[in-house]
Every structure is written in structure tokens, then in C-alpha cells.
């Protein structure tokens, strides 16, 4: 039991934001953290995936990578942008697409044993969520003007005092969006790694133990495989959720009512 | 709780990474792929339209050929019909002409026979008159006066002539 406690403590320390040399980041210290190292790897992978793939995209599909890029872009264009914003959603495909693919590659790269997802830290998710917040509000203001956009928070056909309360709730719900968006992604990635880590610790300790315990180790190892598959699913789903919420927010700013 | 506070270096790295990727992909990845997808959609739409046009054209041509075929067939049968009519007319004409010619031949023959007969009759009458005079002279002798002679011959000739009229 003691060993498990030690293991978990070690795991949580590993999963916290550290410098590459393994010590904690002090306030005001400017270093490359463990999460940022993998974020940069994801950046390179995403970049290469597109730069190599785009050359293989042709009118008559001939390459698998090109086909994958086409499918991905088509998905972002149709299912994320046009679906939530209407035909003018095409304009926002690069923004939503960059978010979707960057989050997706970060999530997936984090699943390679020994690595971490660049999205598994609040530093990343809050930053991107705030970018989304700024972008969708800017789109709303650009389209309707500051006053027109502000007015859209005020409900129509509702008597004064109630309208004021609704408007306040509306503003609060908008302000909370960067937080919900960032915590949802961060927590899913972080928690997934904690769960996978704990089952690895359990499996490893049981294998180290003697006799019958060795046989029982089969259970956490089997579960580990199932959980790993689940985490792959979560990685894709969370990228999708982050991107579709971005699209929905932009769509809401375009079509205020 | 401490993990929920974003670290400054992470904010910077993730922000710059995102912006760099946004600019690069927004310039070199998404636009060309979307352009290609639009082009492909357009090409497919065009091809389908063209195929439809070709199909309609082919159907129209087929219809036209069928009609021409039917017309040709009708024309052919009318030509045959006409030919048959011409042949029949010709046949009737030939037969009629042949009949006419035969009739003419026959009529001519009859006429010839008739004139031969008349000539023969006239000759016979002459001979009979002479013979009768000779016979009568032999029987009666030369007692008859020339005036009586003539009267007798006249009467006899009239008798023979009426006999011949039958």
C-alpha cells in the first residue's frame, strides 16, 4: 500500500508543470516546461502533416495522406463551420481548423507512452480559450458594431427588471466560457493520464510482487488496454468539442438575436 | 489548485505556437485544399451536367433516326406500291391493245371475206346469165326476137338475184 502511495505521489509530481530538468517552475522564471516541449513537437508534427500532405492533395485523389487532409478539411468546413455559422462559415475554416488539428495532434501525441499532451496544462488551454473568446467577440463587434453587439445581450420582449437579470446572466455566461472551455480540455487530458498512470503503477507493483499476485496483475494490465483505447477516443472527442464550441461561439456572434 | 493557475512561459509558448500555426496553415494549407475541394465539386457538377446533356442529345438523335427509319420504310413501301400500280396499268394497257389489235385483224379478215364473197357472187351472176342465155337459146332456138330476149334475161336475172339475196 505504501508503495502505491509513493508511486501515485511520484506520478502526480511527473504530471505537474516542471522544467525539462525536472524541478518546479518558479514565479518569474522563464523556461521551457515539460508540457511545452511536447507542444512544440505537436507543432512540428502538425506543420509537417499539412505541409507534406497539401502537396499530395489533387483533383483526382491519389494519396492517402492527401485523402486524410481532404477529409479533415472537409469535416472542419462542413461539420464544424458551415453547420454552426451558415455559408459564411467558410471564412473561419483556417481558424477553427488550426484549433481542431493542433488540439487533436497535442492530445494524440500525449498518448505516446512517456510523452505528455501539450493540452494537458492550463497554460495552454486557458491561452487558447482566451484567444477564442477575443476572436468571437471581435467578430461580433465587427459585424454589429459595439452598441449593436452589446444590445444582443439584452433579451427582447421581456419586461425591464427581468431583462436586466437575463442580460447579466448572459454576460456572466460569456465571461465563464474561456474557463469552461479551458478546464474541460485540460481536465480531460490530465485526468486521463492520471488514470492510465495509476493503473500502470498497480500493474507494475503486482508484477513485482510474489506468487498469486503476479497472476492478478493481468487484471490492471487488461484494463489498461481498454482505458488506453478510451483515451484515444477522448483525445479525438475533446479536440472536436473544443473546435465545435469555438464554431458555435463564432456562429452566435455572427447571428445574434 | 495550483495546477489551475497558468504559468507565464506556457502562455507565451502556446500563444506563439498557435499564432504561427494559424498563419502558416491559414496561408499554405487550408486555402489550397478548400480551393481544390471547390474545384472538384464544380468539376463533378459540370461532368454530371455534361453527361446529362449528352444523354439527352443521344436520345434525341435516336428518336430522330427512328423517325427517319420509319419515314424511309414508308417511302420504300409507297415506291413499291407505286411500281406495282404502274406495272398493273401497263399490263392492262398491253392486254387492251392486244385485244384491239386482234379485233382489228378479225374485222379486216371479215371484211376481206365479205368483199371476196361479193366479188365471187358478181362473177357467178355473170356466168349464170350467160349460161342461161346459152341454155335458153338452145332450148327455144333462135325464134326469139332480140326484144324478147332481153326481157327474158332481165326477168331471169331478177329471179336469180333474189335467190342470191338469201
What does this structure look like?
The complex is a heterodimer of chains A (257) and B (166). Chain A is mainly alpha-helical and 257 residues long. Chain A has one domain (2-254). In chain A, 77% of the residues lie in helices and 0% in strands. Chain A has eight helices and no strands. Chain A is globular. Chain A starts with a helix and ends with a helix. With 166 residues, chain B is mostly helical. Chain B has one domain (25-164). Chain B has three helices and no strands. Chain B has helices spanning 8-28, 30-140, 146-164. In chain B, helix 2 (30-140) runs antiparallel to helix 3 (146-164). The radius of gyration of chain B is 63 Å and the shape is rod-shaped. Chain A binds chain B through residues 16-17, 25, 28-33, 35-36, 39-40, 43, 46-47, 50-51, 54, 57-59, 69-70, 73-74, 77, 90, 93-95, 97-99, 101-102, 118, 121-124, 126-128, 131, 183, 190, and chain B through 3-11, 13-15, 17-18, 20-22, 24-26, 28-34, 36-37, 39-40, 43.
Subunit organisation of the chains: heterodimer
Query: What is the end-to-end distance of chain A?
Result: 58 Å
Rg of chain A, Å, rounded: 22 Å
Measured between the Cα atoms of the first and last residue of chain B, the distance is 165 Å
Q: Please indicate the percent range of residues of chain A in DSSP E strands (runs of 2 or more).
A: under 5%
Question: Total helix count of chain A?
Answer: 8
- What structural category characterises the helix and strand content of chain A? mainly alpha
Uncertain runs of chain A: none
Descriptive key words:
heterodimer, A: 257 residues, mainly alpha, globular, B: 166 residues, 3 helices
Summarize the structure.
The complex is a heterodimer of chains A (257) and B (166). Chain A is mainly alpha-helical.
Note the topology.
The complex is a heterodimer of chains A (257) and B (166).
Chain A: H1 2-15, H2 34-56, H3 64-85, H4 93-109, H5 122-151, H6 160-208, H7 212-216, H8 218-254
Helix pairs in contact in A: 1-6, 2-3, 2-4, 3-4, 3-8, 4-8, 5-6, 5-8, 6-8
Chain B: H1 8-28, H2 30-140, H3 146-164
Helix pairs in contact in B: 2-3
Amino acid at each position: 500500500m505504501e508503495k502505491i502511495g509513493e508511486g501515485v505521489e511520484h506520478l502526480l509530481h511527473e504530471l505537474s508543470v516542471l522544467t525539462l530538468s525536472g524541478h518546479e517552475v518558479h514565479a518569474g522564471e522563464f523556461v521551457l516546461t515539460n508540457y511545452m516541449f511536447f507542444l512544440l513537437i505537436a507543432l512540428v508534427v502538425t506543420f509537417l502533416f499539412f505541409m507534406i500532405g497539401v502537396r499530395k492533395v489533387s483533383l483526382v485523389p491519389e494519396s492517402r495522406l492527401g485523402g486524410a487532409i481532404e477529409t479533415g478539411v472537409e469535416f472542419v468546413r462542413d461539420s464544424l463551420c458551415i453547420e454552426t455559422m451558415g455559408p459564411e462559415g467558410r471564412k473561419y475554416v483556417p481558424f477553427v481548423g488550426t484549433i481542431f488539428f493542433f488540439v487533436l495532434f497535442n492530445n494524440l501525441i500525449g498518448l505516446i507512452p512517456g510523452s505528455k499532451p501539450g493540452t494537458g496544462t492550463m497554460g495552454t488551454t486557458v491561452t487558447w480559450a482566451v484567444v477564442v473568446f477575443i476572436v468571437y467577440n471581435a467578430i461580433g463587434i465587427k459585424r454589429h458594431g459595439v452598441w449593436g453587439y452589446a444590445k444582443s445581450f439584452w433579451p427582447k420582449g421581456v419586461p425591464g427588471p427581468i431583462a436586466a437579470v437575463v442580460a447579466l446572466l448572459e454576460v456572466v455566461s460569456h465571461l465563464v466560457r474561456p474557463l469552461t472551455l479551458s478546464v474541460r480540455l485540460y481536465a480531460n487530458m490530465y485526468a486521463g493520464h492520471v488514470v492510465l498512470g495509476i493503473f500502470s503503477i498497480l500493474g507494475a507493483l503486482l508484477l513485482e510482487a510474489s506468487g498469486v499476485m503476479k497472476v492478478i496483475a493481468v487484471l490492471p494490465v487488461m484494463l489498461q488496454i481498454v482505458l488506453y483505447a478510451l483515451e484515444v477516443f477522448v483525445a479525438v472527442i475533446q479536440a472536436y468539442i473544443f473546435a465545435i464550441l469555438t464554431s458555435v461561439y463564432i456562429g452566435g456572434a455572427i447571428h445574434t438575436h | 489548485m495550483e495546477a489551475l493557475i497558468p504559468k507565464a512561459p506556457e502562455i507565451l509558448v502556446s500563444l506563439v505556437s498557435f499564432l504561427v500555426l494559424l498563419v502558416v496553415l491559414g496561408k499554405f494549407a487550408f486555402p489550397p485544399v478548400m480551393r481544390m475541394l471547390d474545384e472538384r465539386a464544380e468539376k463533378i457538377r459540370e461532368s454530371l451536367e455534361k453527361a446529362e446533356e449528352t444523354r439527352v442529345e443521344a436520345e434525341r438523335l435516336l428518336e430522330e433516326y427512328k423517325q427517319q427509319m420509319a419515314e424511309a420504310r414508308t417511302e420504300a413501301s409507297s415506291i413499291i406500291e407505286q411500281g406495282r400500280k404502274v406495272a398493273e396499268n401497263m399490263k392492262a394497257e398491253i392486254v387492251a391493245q392486244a385485244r384491239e389489235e386482234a379485233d382489228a385483224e378479225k374485222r379486216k379478215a371479215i371484211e376481206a371475206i365479205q368483199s371476196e364473197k361479193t366479188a365471187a357472187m358478181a362473177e357467178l351472176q355473170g356466168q349464170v346469165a350467160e349460161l342461161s342465155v346459152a341454155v335458153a337459146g338452145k332450148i327455144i332456138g333462135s325464134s326469139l326476137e332480140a326484144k324478147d330476149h332481153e326481157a327474158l334475161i332481165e326477168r331471169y336475172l331478177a329471179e336469180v338475184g333474189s335467190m342470191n339475196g338469201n
